[in-house]
UniProtKB/TrEMBL annotation:
Name the record gives this protein: HTH cro/C1-type domain-containing protein
Source organism of the structure: Cupriavidus pampae
A Pfam family that the UniProt record links to this protein: HTH_26
Domain HTH cro/C1-type: start-end pairs: 1-52
InterPro entries attached to this UniProt entry: Cro/C1-type_HTH, Lambda_DNA-bd_dom_sf
Coiled coil: none
Length: 87
């Protein structure tokens, strides 16, 4: 996301108040960090940091890829609605 938004590590580190070297290590998974750090990083990139239950991860990924939208299969069809009003 940082690359997509064309934000350098130096710029991001200034916004979140962290040394660029430490931020780089966190982003590369070489150093652990607190949840508040991830919240700050997300806010700096105009994003939201969220936890997704593993059983819902595939659904969330599909939605983010634009593949999760479509007809509501549980909704009544227009034919069902029409017939219910004319019974």
């Amino acid at each position: 996301m940082r690359r997509q938004r064309k934000i350098t590590i130096a710029d991001l580190s200034r916004v979140v108040g962290m040394a660029a070297q430490n931020l780089s290590a966190i982003l590369q998974g070489k150093k652990d960090s607190r949840a508040s750090t991830f919240e700050s990083l997300a806010a700096a990139m105009e994003a939201e940091w969220v936890l997704v239950p593993k059983e819902r991860l595939m659904e969330v990924r599909q939605i983010l890829e634009g593949k999760g939208s479509g007809p509501d299969r549980a909704a009544r069809s227009s034919l069902d609605v029409f017939l219910s009003h004319h019974e």
